[in-house]
Design goal:
- With 302 residues, this protein is α+β, with helices and mostly antiparallel strands.
- Strands 5, 6, 7, 8, 9, 10, 11, 12, 13, 14 and 15 form an 11-stranded antiparallel β-sheet that branches.
- α2 packs parallel to α3.
């Protein structure tokens, strides 16, 4: 089996490349390495191996966006297995799917390659967006997108205080965020939520760098979970967010959760969206967006 490292040099605010330079010195087996040059490049690289029907272990050396692209490119391939080395900012992919802590772990895997078939989720609004972990609408998406677009992020990262940008945007968004109305069609029934802060469709438990937003999510059960936070004061929202890392937020009446193979969502105003922490544009007023899942579409290490 061919070993291919797909490295995103800008992941983790540039820390991924530094980590790779240290990591590669410990590798004692043959491998190929490819460095991504633009958004979407990791998907193209993985798709190339799929189209050539090569047998390979594709190891993403980056963050959640990098791994999402690799999975999208490898989807449907019989001979490709996807693994990862955590080198991003949030690294939620590595919390739910197979990951390698070091080169020695890869060597052990090669002695007995074991994989499992995983689900792949998609967001369809005329165009299509695939994701492996989660897609969010509202408060969390607005923060994520603002941070990614911030001109000061890179400068503060160079000073070693890049997380300060995230904190600043959390505070700013918390104070000015305008709640919205969300309509959900699930299993033939319509539900309307008012004063919504966020809605997250999950294929695994984690989002936002380790928050267990959807504790019941399983990566290979053919289901997605929808979490809606609504009709809650700003003060109580702080309390709820303080419990998300443990998953205890699900006990609050303002947190609604449900499971299905498909959700149809629409909002009453433009609202920010993300997929696996990357910008997925805006929901348009009263536009129906479909979230669905395909079972057993790709292989992860186990």
């Amino acid at each position: 089996m061919k070993i291919v490292f797909i490295i995103n040099p800008v992941a983790g605010n540039g820390r991924a490349l530094k980590k790779w330079h240290r990591f590669v010195k410990t590798v004692n087996f043959p491998f190929e390495q490819v460095t991504t040059r633009f958004s979407g490049h990791a998907a193209e690289i993985a798709a190339g191996y799929r189209e050539r029907q090569e047998s390979a272990l594709l190891i993403g050396f980056g963050g959640d966006g990098t791994l999402r692209e690799i999975v999208a490119g490898a989807t449907g391939a019989k001979e490709l297995i996807v693994g990862s080395v955590a080198a991003g900012s949030g690294n939620d992919f590595t919390r739910a799917y197979g990951t390698f802590k070091d080169a020695r772990a890869i060597e052990k895997f090669l002695l007995n390659p074991v994989y499992r078939r995983e689900d792949l989720a998609q967001l369809i609004d005329g165009a299509g967006f695939q994701f492996v972990s989660s897609s969010g609408i509202g408060f969390d998406a607005e923060i994520t997108i603002a941070v990614n677009r911030s001109a000061s992020k890179k400068k503060l990262n160079q000073l070693g205080i890049g997380k300060l940008v995230y904190v600043l945007y959390v505070v700013r968004t918390f104070l000015k965020f305008e709640k919205f109305t969300l309509s959900v069609e699930v299993d033939g029934k319509w539900i309307t939520y008012s004063d919504v802060w966020l809605a997250t469709v999950s294929n695994q438990p984690y989002f936002g760098g380790g928050m267990r937003i959807s504790p019941a999510s399983i990566t290979d059960d053919g289901l997605l979970e929808l979490t809606v936070v609504h009709q809650i004061s700003r003060l109580k929202l702080l309390l709820v967010f303080g419990t998300v890392f443990s998953g205890a937020h699900t006990r609050f009446k303002e947190v609604s959760q449900m499971s299905s193979t498909e959700f149809r969502l629409s909002t009453d105003k433009p609202v920010c969206r993300h997929i696996d922490g990357d910008d997925a544009g805006m929901s348009l007023p009263n536009e129906m967006v479909v979230y669905s899942v395909s079972q057993y579409d790709w292989k992860s290490i186990y």
